[in-house]
Structures are given as structure tokens and as C-alpha cells.
Amino acid sequence: MMAATVVKMMSQSNGFQSKKKEDADNKDNLWSSILAEVQNSGNNKLPSYKNVLVLGDNESGKTTLIAKLQGVEDPKKGSGLEFAYIDVRDDYRDDQTRLAVWVLDGDPGHTNLLRYALNAERFPHTLVMLVAAMTSPWAILEQLQSWAAILGDHIDKLSLDNDTRQQCRQLNVKKWQEYSEPGDELDPGSPLRRTSRNLDEEAVDGLPLPEGVLTTNLGLDVVVVITKTDYMTTLEKEHDFRDEHFDFMQQWVRRFCLQYGAGLFYTSVKEDKNCDLLYKYLTHRIYSLPFRTPALVVEKDAVLIPAGWDNMKKISILHENLQTMKPDSYYRDIIAQPQVNRKAVAREVEVQAEEEQVFLARQQAALTCLKDPTRSPTTRNQASTGPVIQVASPNKKLDPKSAGGTPGGEGVLANFFNSLLYKKSGATPGSPGAPGSPGSVGSSPAKLEITSPDAGPVDKAAMRNDAAAELDRLTRMKKVPPPDLNSSSEC
After folding, report:
1. What letter does residue 222 receive in the DSSP assignment?
2. Could you tell me if 62 and 56 are in contact, meaning their C-beta atoms sit under 8 angstroms apart?
3. Where are the beta strands (DSSP E) in 121-251?
4. Tell me, what's the pLDDT at 449?
């Protein structure tokens, strides 16, 4: 009995130890599961090292578009290489991050700044937006090709190892091949589901790309954005654009997008078209957030084509609307730039403001000159209806040559009436009290009364005496040397 009791106690002890060990194992498993969950949630967080590089000509709407994606109403335009960020939020996982945005100036002289925005380290984590504006439709294709060439040259200069370059290119091919219509991923049995979705990854990688797709694979995710599509109405009214012109433009742009494996968005910040969808598409391509909007090709000013949807067969549908032009015609021959009115441009001459002191000096000279054409109409009327009475200023003497050599004897008449003025005032010419002499400054001038022809005859004897006195005075003044005509005091 003693032995049975000992065995029973030993079995209970062993059971207790095994239970304790099991609890310890469960506790360890619990902590392991918590740590694994935290680790998995950390891996699922939105990364903070993603970038968007925006390229395009000046006035293409790059800054305004990014401000719209940011939710900023008053964008501030800079120069060179601008940096901004877009707040990105994942409502499903209650997570948020910031997407870095680099906007390069449209001046080709600033392309050397690309090395700061796109280097070997950022290359696998960068999406590129090529932007062109509908306000200059004749230059859209040329601008896109130019910036794509600049981007390609910059990538070739990066110190990327071959493995990284090939992985990025294969990822572009895989994204294109794995595109499915929105809703297919929710319904595996959908008849619209692409055949490649039912194959394994190796089979998908082995499928050839459609015609014209990714013939230039940069290894970067590319999105083409045509801005200011609200200007299409102006093109129709002022430049006689028709629907076939816009279809011709669209089919060329879509061919370009196939070449680089890019998505296409027609946007208008003014009318708020496709801006929100562009934001969702960017977060879908960069962070793999859901994007369930299908391709939109019905509205000519709100086209939306995700990368992977388009092909040459779908583009050929636009060819049916081209009645007066051929699809393969040279782009600039069909979408030609309007002629500039050179006469209107010639009128826009820059006006230089005259210096204030020069202007005032010129006006002073004009006011002091008696024969200046800027005299008041009253003075001109008096000059045309009667003789001009010239009274010498205190600081200026009359030029005897100019006084006697004026046409029609106006100088003689002026001196004659001056003599009458001296006679009426009771002073002799040149005396301190005579009008026009230095001593007469501040004194009230004598009143000169001239009888008009209708009022009666003038005293002829007095006129003869005054004329004789005036002739004697002129004879004496001939002996005086004439003043300097180059003096600043002369008009």
C-alpha cells in the first residue's frame, strides 16, 4: 500500500510538471504569436521612402497639378528643382505616410539637377510623371518624347548594377501582364477575366508582350498626364479643332504610352477632372492600394487609361473617326501651330519712363520759350489776331538782331509798343523806374492802352516821334556786340 501511494504521488508530480511545462510552452507560443503579428503589421506599413519625379515644359501645369493632389489652393511656383510631399492614408489599415515629390523646372538648363532627385538608391522606389498641356496641343508629342529622352540619358549615367536594372525592368513587364479589369480579382469565374490570370507566375512571365508595348523599358513606372483639358473648348471655337483632331492626338499619345508602358490621364484642375482618380492611381502603383476605376475613353477631355489595359487594336478604334487625315500622318502636319500676328506683336514696345528731373527741365524750357508750341490756346489766338507785345525780363536783354530780323517787322512793332509803354509810364528806356528795367521789379506795370482800328485814329505826330526815337535807339544798339546764342538762357 505504501508503494501504491508513492507511485500515485510520483504520477501526480509528473503530471504537475508536465502541465507546468505545457503552460510555459503556451506562454512562449503566445509571445511568439504577438511578436509575429507585430512584425507582420510593421511590414505592412506604408513605406516612407517612395518618390515621384515630375517632368514637363514650363507652363505645363506641373506645380498646379501637384498642389491639387496636395489639397493646396494657392500653389507657390519656384524654380530649379522643387520639393514637396503628398499625404497618403490607408483607411483599411489605419496607416499614413508622406510621398516625396520632386518637380523639375522646364528649362533644359536645369536638367543637371536630376541627379539630386533620381539616383541609384532612389531608382527602384521612384515613379515618373511626364506632363504636357492641352494649351499647346501641337507640342504635346514633341515635349513627351524630349523629356523621355532626357530621362533615358540620365538613367544610363546612373551607377546601377545589372541585377537591379533587370529586376526593375522585369517588374514593369509583370505589372503590365498582371493588369486585370476592376472586379475580376473579386470574381475568379468572371468571363471578362484575362486568360493570363489563370496561369502561374512562370507562365505569365513567359507570355510575350503585345505589339508596341514596352519597346523602351526604362525600369521605372511612368504616368503620362495631359493637363488643362478644359482648353479644348477654346481650341474648337478659336482654332477650328474638331473631334477627329482630338482623336488623332489621342491615338499618338496612346502609342507613346504603349512604348514606355505608361498609364494615361487627361486632367483639368480648373474643372476638377480626373485629379482625384490620378491621386488614387498613384497610390495604387506605388503602395499597391486598391484602384477599381476602369478605363475611360468616351469623354475626350477626361481620358483615363491604366497601364496594362491598352493595345494597338483598341487604339485602332479611333482610326474610324479620322475622315480627313491619316493615322500615321506626321503629328505637326495635322496639329499645326497657329500663325502669330506679327503686327500685334510689333505694337508691344516697351516704354521707358523719362527721368523726373529731365522731364521738369524740359518743361521749364518750354514754358520760358515764347515761341513754344505748348502755349495755351488763348495765347495762340491773341498771336493770330494782333501784334505781339514783347517786354524784356529783368535778367534778359532783347537780341537786337532777332528783334529787327523777324518776318513782317514784328520786332519793330514790339519795340514801338514798348516805347509807348515807356512814354505812358513817364520813364525813359533803361531808367530804373522804367518797366522792364531791373529797378522795376515788384512795381505795378503801367497800363498800356491800344486803340483798335474801330475805336478811331491814333495821334500820328506822337507815333512819328516815338518811331524816330526807336530808330535812334536801334542804331546805338548795333554797336553793342550780340549776346552768345549758345547760352542756356536763350530759347
Report:
1. E
2. yes
3. 126-133, 221-227
4. 47
